[in-house]
Design a protein that fits this description.
The complex is a heterodimer of chains A (236) and B (763). Chain A has nine helices and eight strands. By secondary structure, chain A is an alpha/beta fold. With 763 residues, chain B is of the alpha/beta class. The longest helix of chain B has 29 residues. Chain B folds into four domains: 61 residues; 100 residues, OB fold (Dihydrolipoamide Acetyltransferase, E2P) (Beta Barrel); 231 residues, no CATH class; 269 residues, 4-Layer Sandwich (Metallo-beta-lactamase, Chain A), CATH 3.60.15. Chain B contains 27 helices and 24 strands. In chain B, strand 23 and strand 24 form a beta hairpin. Classes of the chains: A alpha/beta (236), B alpha/beta (763). The interface between A and B is medium-sized, with 15 and 18 residues. Chain A: This is Competence protein ComFC. Chain A: Belongs to the ComF/GntX family.
Amino acid sequence: MRPYCLLCHHCYQPRVSWSDLLTLKKGDCLCATCRRSFSLIDSDICSDCGRPLDHLDHSYRDGDVCNDCLRWQNDNEWKGVLAKNRSVYVYDDVMKEVISRWKFRGDYAIIEAFRHDVCRVFSHHFSSESVLVPIPLSRERLYERGFNQAKALAELLSLPILDILERDHLEKQSKKSRHERLQMENVFRLRMSLPLEKPLVIIDDIYTTGATVRHAAKRLRQAGATDVSSFTLARA
Amino acid sequence: MKDNLIYMAVAAIGGIALGYSQPSLFSFLLLSVYSFFLFVRKRQLFFLCAITTVGFYLYMIYTDSHNRTILSEKMNDFSIRLIAPITIDGDRLKTIVKTKQHENVQLIYVIKTEQEKKQLSMLTLGMVCSVKGTLERPQRSRNPYAFDYQQYLRFQHIHWLLKPHSFSPHHCRNTPRTWYETLLSIRQKGLDDIKQYFPASTVGIVQALVYGERSQMDDSLLEGYQQLGLVHLLAISGSHVTLLVGACFYFLIRFTTRETATILLLILLPVYTVMTGASPSVIRASFMAMIVLFAAYKKIAISPLDVLCLTCMAMLILQPYALFQAGFQLSFIVSFALIVSLPCILQFSASLARLIVTTLIAQVSALPFLLYHFFEFSLFSFPLNIAFVPLYSFIILPLSLLSLGVHYVYAPASSPFVWALERVITISNDCVTFFSSHAPLSIVLGRPSPFLLVCYGIAIVLAFIRLENKRYDGFLYVLIAIFCHAVSPYIDRYGEVVIVDVGQGDCIYIELPHRKGVYLIDTGGMLSFSKEQWQMRQHEWEVGKDVVIPFLKGNGVRHIDKLLITHGDYDHMGAAKSIMNDVPVKQLVIGKGGTRNSLQAELVDVAKEKHIAVKEVERGDSWYVNDFRFYILNPSTQSQETDDNNNSIVLYTKLGGLSWLFTGDLEEKGEEQLMEAFPQLRVNVLKVGHHGSDTSTKEPLLQAIQPDIALISVGKQNRYHHPHPDVIKRLQAHGITIWRTDQNGAIRFLYTKKRGTFTVMLP
């Protein structure tokens, strides 16, 4: 039986490689066409937020830091809250479609398509000592969606997960402007105390302005954490 | 069964290999590693693979035990059927014939006159002839690393050479041909057409590319292609078959449905296989094409890797001995490596990058097999392949097919194509000749041991896995494996002395432990008798090229420290020139006053041209390396001896706890002088003087030096009737063990500092 592609549902011919034959690597669950449509972030990135820099005009960056991050750094309230952010894929039209299918339309199985890249990119940028802190959903949203996409991503990584954040139910982030997001009250609360010595990595699906992860990071820092960074599936 | 056939194919290969080789710890280890791998990786296939291995193992044992002759040496009268192409090369006719008893034998006939040669060219396939002649056993390999003719024929279920006393078409009659013979005679006709209508410089290449026939290619040119690792271009393989099948399919669907076109091609492919000489690479490519076409016809999806593995197993069932052929191994390993590396090659988008990566993968995967069979590889192989693969695939091959096709349709129209073809082939041949003769940059590594082969395998697979992540550092492992291979002789604590079987003549190879020194005493040499034009063969057998150099290269000899020429007889130094051409020599050693002999004088000139140091030695000279001392006992300038033989260099040394005396062609008079000068001389091993002639090895010498072992380097059935029975009697009377190259093939003494053991090629 030939496998079907998780995305396009067409039958496809997987290509065997040396590592398929000889190592324990699993075959890809996407056909070659769908796999190629994903754009990995693998070139120059902003050293702060992990945004790909190669298509960014020079007027929007300063050295290897993008203007967005400069704005965060110049703000005394937010300076140094988040050590860094790293993301796996570029949040382009394809990724937008794939993520919305996964998250909003509940095609949970698609997460398998991310597994290999997520693990690889994470281990490239973060220490294996890290403790993962997924961004939570409010109870209402969790009920509506059936699963927490950030926690699902964290579970791919086989590292300790610390589900200590809670959030109030508010309007969706994606319906707000940057300014609104920044002006927002911090919606996160801590459920318990932290293991202070370990580096913490906040996990989320998309990094757009960075407001969400910074709000979460701020709460963690207020609780005494010293090293807080974030890792997301896609970077807008 | 998705992509799982590979595990079964490997199991099948293991079964065949186990069935043919002697059981050893090494094969047991490999088998357990593979079982463990399967157990971890593909547990559901474990039993299937085990059954496959056992099945193929039993099948191989069954095939091998039934590969026996029913003919006997006493037979003289034969009724034979000509079933294979008849090649007449100079004064020799060779073909495979089927006897009345339905056993194939290899017929070899030396043609006596030019008139007879003309008559014999009228022989055709399907004729039945009655001949009188004798059956001879084919030669086994008489030297380490030499070609084993007996085994080669046995793999084709042939056990005898038939040598007719006379052979003429008058004793033959035509019979109806089988379809197979018909195809072969069409092929022969096609080859003749190419020879007749194409310019001489293109004939060999066009014949090779269209019919897979290389016999018309110039010997040194073919050697050049071989040396530079380009010879695969001259074999019909996957790209040919793909091109032809693609072109035919495209052509056929203009006239008929896809289904009919597929069926037509399925019928034509076996015909094509026979027409192109049915070499392993053609069979593989056609078989794979047939599976793909059949799968497309039946609308079954099958992956390329599974196609390859099915083909491999099918070929092993049809002809289990194929596994041991270089052609089979290279064809499958390169196809396998390319198919599995396909995802990796496709990561690269530029076509030049893809070409480079493809060439790299093909070259690296073939490396251990090339080293095993040919002992060396050329550094130019990689860059030249990058240039030649597209040249052959996109220009020379299509042009050859096109000009031949056009020639058959309307001959005059083909001339521009033929002209273009001639230009391109001339340029490419010139290029090959230039690189192979001026700077082949060959790296001689010798035949890798099984342990090294495993190292190569692991290193190469690791390199390919790394390459999949676009990391090139894995190739460092391959370089490390090559390095280990290159230094392995220097680590080896064994030295060896080999009396190389060069027929009538002398050639003794001495290697010190840890390769502290490599010495060659004499080179052998065969006087060729002047031949008339019609008698000249494409490839004239030559001791240096065909025996000594393969032996040296197989041993991984990159240079000779001293080449000692005991004296100027052709059977001792005839091959020296070709050896100096192929293997760097640091010093040429001849006896003092040796240049009086014209052959030696000529050799010294050649050596000087090549900037090889020449040293004349006499009694009293010696040299040493660590604890190994070598003493020259002869010639002596005081003796005023003028006879060449008695002026032979005589060498005394101690190796592996034994004392050795190498006497060249020393005769009675020389022996007397030797005993006079060294009355206390005692030796354990005596290289018997002058091939066991009665004029040497006289009683007084034996009494004086009291050897335990006598080594005689002598040709089988030589014209001088050496060794003389009296010499053998004298040796036997002293209770001396005798080893003879005519009976034992090469004699090898493997030693460490204190002790050593003798082995012979033909026990």
